[in-house]
Amino acid sequence: MEPLSSFFGVSVILLGIGIYGLTTKRNAIRILFSVELIYNAANLNIIAFARLRNPPIVTGQVLVLFTIALAAMEAAVGLSIIILVSRLNADIDLSKLSKLKG
Amino acid sequence: MTDLLFLAFAAVTIGAAILAIEARDLVYGAAALGIAFLGVAGLFFLLDAAYVGWFQIAVYIGAVVVLILFTVMLVGPKKGESPLGLKRVSLLAAMLVSLLLGMTGALANATAFPGPDSCGSGCDLSLFSTSLLKNYGVPLEFMSLVMAAAVIGALALSKTDRGQ
Question: Are B37 and B65 in contact (CB under 8 A)?
Answer without folding.
Answer: yes
